[in-house]
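tokens incoming
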């Protein structure tokens, strides 16, 4: 009986300690980018994200300006190309030798912006991006 109880406790702990699934991570990132993507601290640059697509090896979105509806930029990046993300006020920076966020209007950069709205949203997004990158098959094929 004690052995059965011990086995049930171990399996219960394992079940509680599991990380988010790939699908849950993708859904969470997409929801947060839809809700908080962009920035609104500059009067001439009140932006939001639309057409958001999220997969383990690719995140893309359109940046729209609320005050100038004709202005839009497409951004795309592979979250697995950077191993460290740093939250900083309204931005989530990539710490990488390469600037991997490709912007069709201004070239490349190493950040994207998120409006404040939830406690620790920037830190949580940085963690979610690192977790999402673990599902990218492009990086798993390397021997070393």
């Amino acid at each position: 009986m004690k052995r059965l109880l011990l086995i049930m406790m171990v399996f219960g702990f394992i079940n509680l300690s599991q990380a988010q699934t790939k699908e849950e991570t993708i859904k969470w990132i997409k929801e947060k980018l839809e809700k908080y993507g962009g920035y609104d601290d500059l009067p001439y640059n009140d932006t939001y994200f639309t057409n958001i697509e999220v997969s383990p090896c690719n995140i893309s979105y359109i940046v729209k300006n609320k005050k100038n509806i004709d202005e839009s930029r497409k951004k795309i990046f592979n979250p697995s190309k950077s191993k460290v993300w740093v939250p900083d006020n309204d931005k989530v920076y990539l710490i990488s030798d390469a600037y991997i966020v490709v912007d069709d209007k201004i070239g490349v950069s190493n950040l994207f912006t998120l409006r404040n709205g939830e406690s620790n949203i920037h830190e949580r997004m940085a963690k979610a991006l690192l977790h999402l990158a673990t599902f990218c098959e492009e990086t798993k094929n390397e021997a070393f």
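note: The longest helix spans residues 2-16.
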